[in-house]
């Protein structure tokens, strides 16, 4: 379980823009569910983007014109007999708001209008959609989420992630083929946000620790690495000669039960063990941690194991509490790691 308010805090760490004044009220506003929170962020974010100016792109157009613009298309002009109307078919670049990211925003806002959010929020969305009248619609199931950001469109990064959470994390198809939004995000999308939140939390509050999401090289005897999978850590903390590799997990169930015995998920344990042992070859004091988002299960792990000379711990982080408590436990992990 997770408090809806904490989803905002997690997003605010993942995207610094949510710490700005325009979004400050979200830290204390009560939201009934995740869809309400995300729709509020969309309304505020799009409003700010409209004031800045919606992102525009050059789109090639070919159309009959009374005055020359761009390149003349004589063959097409003759074919369409536009000369009779004293027009020429021209091909030119038009600066348009019909960009791919604006299409995603429009599709997301139209989707939210079909969900049971407050009437006031729906009114705000309808008012914003007026500015998207020249933007084409897009199928939410065919969106390519691999956006390329630069200094001209970086203000869209947070908005695209929130659209992704709404469409991928909240949208589901019912038995009759219709679509509806769930009240809370699914595990896969929450896991991605959970990882990014912890990473950015340590980057901001512990500048003395080098915090990355680094890849880990395989400890190979002959250098042959063909077909080996990439080992990508979620969070890696480096302080002096110490390294802590954190694997953040967000599941509905942390423990598995076999023949009445509760155990950790073996794949998760194998993964963190592999990360630690391969990193340890580089030297220094290397440890690992599986940090699960806490569930309402009766049995929760809180263990530290010494495995072949390396500490590997399994902990849980309660996200259904005041954010100050979450911060306290994250601070405790960092302070223990540094030896404070």
Which radius of gyration do the C-alpha atoms yield? Answer: 26 Å
What is the CATH class of the largest domain?
Alpha Beta
Structural class: alpha+beta
Count of separate structural domains: 3
Intertermini distance: 31 Å
Strand order of the largest sheet: 6-9-10-13-15-14
User: How large is the share of residues in beta strands?
Assistant: 15-25%
Report the mean per-residue pLDDT as an integer: 88
Number of strands: 15
The name CATH uses for the topology of the largest domain is Restriction Endonuclease
Number of distinct helices:
9
Q: Quickly give the CATH architecture of the largest domain.
A: 3-Layer(aba) Sandwich
- DSSP helix fraction: 25-40%
Low-confidence stretches: none
Main sheet attributes: strand count, strand direction, barrel closure: 6 strands, mixed
In sequence order, what are the helices and strands, one letter per element?
HHEEHEHHHEEHEEEEEEEHEEEH
What coarse outline follows from CA principal-axis ratios?
elongated
